[in-house]
């Protein structure tokens, strides 16, 4: 039987610089490049509230949360009314960059037609407030809150009609805000939109697809919408506005399970690679290489739509940089190799997951966050290097989200979030190690500035570096907020080995 012990021997050890006492205190300072971009991130539906104010239309998350979630975003962090206080807090923490998303149904209540002046006014005010406090805005156009009308009329991202609608919406945003917004992200994590929204049904609009066809079709339309919006920006706005535009994709790292049999080890390696392609290559290959990965084409057949030659040209090179969201890692075995350690994880079934023929497993000794996600800083290092090798994005890689949920039942618990501090410290240090090996990482955004509406899990999961009391809307910075402040101020992180998280070198101690 394969065990954790034999996994570890195949992982590359990380290098730690010994501390000054020579006795292995193992603390060292990792310096970042002078122009490195540090910040935090949020998303409109997760924090704004004010669901029926300012002429806002309904989004698919209003509908879905009412029908299928423990909570709604009706009030959330009430950021719509409290943005000035939030921006001041950001400034007081010394944060200089902020990634937020625009709510499409605030700009176009029914998803088409002229801009809603009140919605535009809100984002004008937010952007001006940020700039007045010395904070640079980075704006995501689509962080999952599709206007409900587009779902009702066209089946959301299953409908080709949503592509020109997104183009129109993007144009309105570039025209209104592009004089002050110099970094744009078209989509946040289309993987989640498509897999969770049209495959498993965990996210809005709650559609399911046993054979995966809807997953691939919605992904195809997201890609075409991304390309159309980038084309509009480049032709109509970029020459004068001189900003950058890209996309944010999410991926776990998939570490192949080791095996003493060379053939089986190769199967696991291929399965791990496939899982990364299905997560990241699905979107990044069309954007950096002009088409879907060949492995996907071969295994999905006609369920994976095809691009025309014209569409391939439009897609290729359509991201000035790679935005990457990363939260966790898994070990992967080829699904065909039996069940020798399958009790560690869930075998995948059918459709989008079955196509990958890989099974994700957790290591029993890995620390877990309150989401149940494994804490594996060295997986981040490997993922960044994988992205660098496969895509070498000309404008670099921006880590647009990384963070963890911690159970914080009380304010007292929240302000001592040492687990989050250790998590962030470990991941930032791992990112630094990737940079030393050639990963062109230009920025890092902690998820999230505030505790917020964690989608289908509502307010039960807290990702913020600032606590939100949902009864009073009081904001209280946690220890992690002070940690980020000091990282920003020193442009460095103190690397200290944390006994809770196994690095590759210590895994065999498990
Ligand atoms: C991201 N997964 O979602 C989103 O961009 C955020 O809005 C969200 O709050 C944050 O991460 C934390 O969940 C993800 O299943 C949802 O691997 C699911 C996954 C990854 C990211």
UniProtKB/TrEMBL annotation:
Catalytic residues identified in the record: 189, 401
Annotated keywords: Carbohydrate metabolism, Cellulose degradation, Glycosidase, Hydrolase, Polysaccharide degradation
EC number(s) reported in the record: 3.2.1.21
Catalytic activity annotation: Hydrolysis of terminal, non-reducing beta-D-glucosyl residues with release of beta-D-glucose
PROSITE patterns found in the cross-reference section: GLYCOSYL_HYDROL_F1_2 (PS00653)
One GO MF term: beta-glucosidase activity
Highest rank taxon of the organism: Eukaryota
First-level EC class: hydrolase
Keyword Hydrolase attributed: yes
Matching InterPro entries: GH, GH_1_N_CS, Glyco_hydro_1, Glyco_hydro_1_beta-glucosidase
Example of a GO biological process term: cellulose catabolic process
Family according to the record: Belongs to the glycosyl hydrolase 1 family.
Protein name: beta-glucosidase
């Amino acid at each position: 039987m394969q065990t954790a012990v034999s996994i570890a021997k195949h992982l590359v050890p990380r290098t730690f610089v010994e501390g000054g006492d020579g006795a292995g205190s193992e603390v060292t300072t990792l310096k970042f490049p002078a122009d490195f971009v540090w910040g935090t991130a949020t998303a409109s539906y997760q924090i704004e509230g004010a669901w029926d104010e300012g002429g806002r239309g309904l989004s698919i998350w209003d509908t879905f949360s009412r029908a299928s979630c423990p909570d709604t975003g009706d009030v959330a962090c009430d950021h719509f009314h409290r943005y000035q206080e939030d921006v001041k807090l950001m400034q007081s923490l010394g944060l200089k960059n902020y990634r937020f998303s625009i709510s499409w149904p605030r700009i176009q209540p029914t998803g088409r037609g002229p801009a809603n002046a009140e919605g535009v006014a809100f984002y004008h005010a937010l952007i001006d407030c940020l700039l007045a406090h010395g904070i640079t805005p980075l704006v995501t156009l689509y962080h999952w809150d599709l206007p409900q009308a587009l779902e009702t009329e066209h089946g959301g991202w299953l409908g080709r009609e949503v592509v020109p609608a997104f183009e129109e919406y993007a144009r309105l945003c570039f025209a209104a805000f592009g004089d002050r917004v110099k970094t744009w992200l078209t989509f946040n994590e289309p993987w989640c939109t498509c897999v969770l929204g049209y495959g498993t049904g965990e996210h809005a609009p709650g559609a399911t697809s046993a054979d995966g066809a809807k997953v691939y079709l919605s992904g195809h339309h997201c890609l075409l919408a991304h390309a159309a919006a980038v084309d509009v920006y480049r032709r109509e706005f970029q020459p004068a506005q001189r900003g950058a535009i890209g996309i944010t994709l999410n991926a776990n790292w998939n570490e192949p399970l080791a095996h003493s049999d060379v053939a089986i080890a190769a199967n696991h390696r291929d399965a791990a690679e496939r899982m990364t392609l299905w997560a990241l290559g699905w979107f990044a290959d069309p954007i950096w290489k002009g088409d879907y990965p060949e492995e996907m084409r071969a295994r999905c057949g006609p369920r994976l739509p095809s691009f025309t030659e014209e569409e391939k040209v439009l897609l290729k090179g359509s991201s000035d940089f790679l935005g990457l969201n990363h939260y966790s890692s898994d070990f992967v075995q080829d699904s065909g190799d039996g069940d020798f350690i399958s009790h560690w994880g869930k075998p995948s079934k059918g459709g989008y997951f079955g196509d990958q023929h890989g099974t994700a497993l957790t290591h029993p000794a890995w620390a877990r966050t309150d989401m149940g996600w494994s804490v594996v800083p060295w997986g981040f290092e490997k993922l960044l290097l994988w992205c660098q090798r496969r895509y070498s994005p000309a404008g670099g890689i921006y880590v647009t989200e990384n963070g963890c949920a911690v159970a914080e039942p009380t304010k007292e618990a929240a302000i001592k979030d040492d687990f989050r501090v250790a998590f962030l410290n470990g991941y930032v240090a791992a990112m630094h190690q990737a940079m030393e090996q050639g990963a062109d990482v230009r920025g890092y955004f902690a998820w999230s500035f505030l505790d917020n509406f964690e989608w289908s899990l509502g307010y039960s999961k807290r990702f913020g570096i600032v606590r939100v009391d949902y009864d009073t809307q009081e904001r209280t910075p946690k220890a992690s907020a002070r940690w980020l402040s000091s990282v920003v101020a020193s442009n460095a992180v103190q690397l200290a080995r944390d006994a809770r998280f196994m690095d590759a070198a210590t895994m065999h101690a498990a």
